[in-house]
Amino acid sequence: MEKHNIKFYKNIRLLLSTTHHTEIGILYLWLAFINFILAGTSAFVMRLQLGKLPENIISEQIYYSLVTLHGLAMVLFFIVPAFTGLANYILPKMIGAPDLYWPKINALAFWMNVPASIIFWLSILIGKPIVTWTLYAPFSVYYQDIAVDFVGLGVILIGISTTISAINFIMTILRLRHPSIPFSHMPLFVWAFFSTAILVIVVTPPLAAGLIMLEMDRYLGTHFFVRQGDPILWQHIFWFFGHPEVYILVLPAMGIVSEVLPRMARRPIYGFRAIALSSLLIAIISYIVWVHHMFTTPTDINVRIFFMVTTVAVAIPTGIKIFNWVATLYGGRIRLCTPMAFMLAFIAAFIIGGITGVYNAYIPINYSIQDTYWVLAHFHFVVLPIVFALIGGIYYYFPFITGKMFSEKLSKISFILIVTGTYLTYTPWFKLGLEGMPRRYYNYPPQYYELQFLSTIGTFILALGLLVFFIDIIKSWLKGRPAKEDPWGAAKIGLPEFATAGHSVHLNGSSHELHYPHPYAAIAGISTGFAGLGSFLVLSGNLILGSILIAIFIGIMSYWFYKDYLSKSSKLAHYLSEFSLEKLANLKRGDVLVATLIFIFSEATIFGTAFSSYIWLRALYPTWPPPVDGKVIELVDFTVPLINSAFLFASGGTMHVAYEMLKRGFINRFKIFLMITFILGTIFIIGQIIEYMHSGLSIKDGVYGSTFYLITGLHGTHVIMGLAFMLVLLAMAFKMKLSKERYHPVLAGTLYWHFVDIVWVFVLAIVYFNLLQPPVLIHHI
Q1: Quick one: pLDDT at residue 588?
Q2: Of 526, 557, 549, whose CA–CA distance to 112 is shortest?
Q3: DSSP run (H or E) holding 747
Q4: Which end of the chain lies in a sparser environment, N or C, as judged by fewer CB atoms within 10 Å?
């Protein structure tokens, strides 16, 4: 049972400075449910309009704005952060870890959610983001309202936060797991969340890249999704993220079910290995299903058949889980308390959502129900069961988090109202869809009124159930009766919730006994809002104010780095200086290698999005580059890039030499070679700028100009990031913070710089030498 000696949330300094996983988890849950209330209120107001209670209670623009905000908020700002919060609290305990791998980065990731949420919800106060939650081009490009930019900016920030957090969880599972817990014996929630984190680092960065391209279309006149570009490209980028996002939502829910259900059935889970591996299988298959959202677009029939098969195939690992859950219940001594009731409700409702999803995958049926209320019903019968599992999980772990017990009476009332309201709200939508009612309509013909009214009544019941849930949680937190040490009796039957062995190594000041006040992560996380707004202002032409906001963010991050790693008063540096150098080297080398490779893999997906977009747009035209308004566009000469390449590739060699010098203890030689690397990289950037100035190509010059500047600019940005990191390494070297035992930051920098070199090879081959010539797509011609 967690014992909080100090209620951190009652002191603003402690609130901002905490980095402990249990407290960060609680903060995640608080913010997630604030977003849930806002998203739920948006849905409730929309239902009032559709139920005509009264008629035209809101305007059309407000209605479509709420459609946009409700969809994105439920998916990105509620469910994902809520499960991240729950995972923060329970996952390290399950694997015997002292905390997440990077506690301060964990805090940073949480506090990034705050400006992301504020900016996102501000959109409806400063404008009308009526583009709906999929942000489909070309409307999202041509609809000039700053509210759309705020929505996109909020999504980008929350996406970065989620990706950082996912990398942190992967590192925690791989590197901080207690030696007594082998990978194959990890709890099923850990398996599920590990699979979720893998999904996040692959599909979330491409969405951020797509949103940046969308903003470039809006403000710089580029040709990605409009003009010479293709709006279908946006659909590919969005749904490559959008459908795996469903499994990012559902896998943690399945993990919670797999933990709670056997303990309430009083017997071990049936088919442990099958359930564990099915989580990974779901994650893998989900990468190749997204096109079923686009069957009504001009897509080759063979492509549609392939994605139909893969979409149906994802039901197999899902079915494995359901079969094993039911088998676990068979012969069990079931304890039907509130958490168990929500788990059973999840299984029943998710079967409906899953089966209707299989129907959607069949091409002829998809043609009939696409963009109707049937699709809405299916999706809500996927999302609401996830909420069931989340609420059930919160009830189950509530005694561990608060030391109090909830009210069984109020929780049962909440359960009945929530489940009844869910079925009454969303079941009529299947019939509405089969009758042909389109989704997203503000008004509708009178023949649909009765079912819409019935659905609105269900919404009232659902809202009442959620209200009872909130009352129960708050009342129990404040005045609930004390919980027992083993509140569910799981330990008595040999199924303890958490690992009994604790971790003996604390390298990062994460455990309570080594925790110290640290407000910089919170300040830096909040200041990412300045960076985001500053970038938007620069993009939209306000260079001075935008640059000031970006400079504030850079200054805060630099000060944080100085206080932690360069200052003589740094508690972290003092602690590490007392740690065994040999032990530190042995522990950290493998960790840095794994962490850097994960980060590079995530970054590679951004470049993958840029290159894929280039190839897609390249395939639209039989001649390349295509003319723009009668103007002939020439391929950029590659003389300057070849000269530039010599400097960049040489810098890769000098960077590696610098790394080897440090490993051998030659500090001065390390500094010299690192400075040479910095100079060579700077020459590359200067050469890139010279090329831009003399190429005669504008970013507005059709798809070629747009993709050229996108890819080379993206690579140049990563080069600048690498140069900035070299300055950090030089500062650490001159402050004597690097040595042959502490070379791990340099290892990370070296790997990253080699990644930049490798990407440049692809840039040369595809963009400059035009070596890749895909077959022409006919749908655009």
Answers
A1: 58
A2: 526
A3: helix 744-763
A4: C
Please give the span between the terminal C-alpha atoms of the chain, in angstroms, as a whole number. Answer: 65
What does each C-alpha distance from 279 to 188, 260, 372 come to in angstroms?
9, 17, 30
What's the CA gap between 537 and 765, in Å, rounded? 34
What's the rounded mean pLDDT across residues 100-123?
96
Q: What is the 3-state secondary structure (H, E, C) of 241-271?
A: HHHHHHHHHHHHHHHHHHHHHHHHHCCCCCC
Whose structure tokens read 């399945």? 254
Read off the DSSP letter of residue 7: -
DSSP string for residues in 621-671? -SSSSPPBTTB--PPPPSHHHHHHHHHHHHHHHHHHHHHHHHHTT-HHHHH
Crossing angle of the two packed helices 520-539 and 543-561, in degrees rounded to 10:
160
pLDDT tens-digit series, residues 7-52: 666 678 888 888 889 999 999 999 999 999 999 999 999 999 999 9
- Helix intervals (H) in 127-271: 139-142, 146-175, 188-219, 231-265
- Could you give all domains of the chain from N- to C-terminal order, each with its CATH number? 579-768 (1.20.120.80)
What's phi and psi for 90, nearest 5 deg? -100, -30
What DSSP string describes 111-138? HHHHHHHHHHHHHHHHS--TTTTTT-TT
Higher pLDDT, 355 or 517: 355
Torsion (CA) 99, 105, 111, 112 in degrees, nearest 10: -140
CA contacts within 13 A on the Cβ side of 357:
25
Residue type, 272: F
Q: Which residues pair with 628 in a beta bridge?
A: 631
DSSP state of 445: -
C-alpha 372/C-alpha 358 separation (Å) is 16
pLDDT digits (tens, 9 = 90+) for 481-533: 999 988 999 988 888 889 876 554 444 444 433 455 678 999 999 999 999 99
Q: What is the DSSP string of 523-558?
A: HHHHHHHHHHHHHHHHHTT-HHHHHHHHHHHHHHHH
CB 614 within 8 A of CB 711: yes
pLDDT digits (tens, 9 = 90+) for 383-396: 999 999 999 999 99
Q: What are phi and psi of 628, to 5 degrees?
A: -120, 110
CA distance 663 to 408: 61
Angle at 248 between CA 369 and CA 206, to 5 degrees: 85
**Can you tell me the distance from the alpha carbon of 129 to that of 383, in angstroms, rounded to the nearest whole number?**
23
d(CA 66, CA 128): 9
| CB-based contact 538:560 (threshold 8 Å) | no
Reduced 3-state DSSP string for 566-622:
HCCCCHHHHHHHCCCHHHHHHHHHHHHHHHHHHHHHHHHHHHHHHHHHHHHHHCCCC
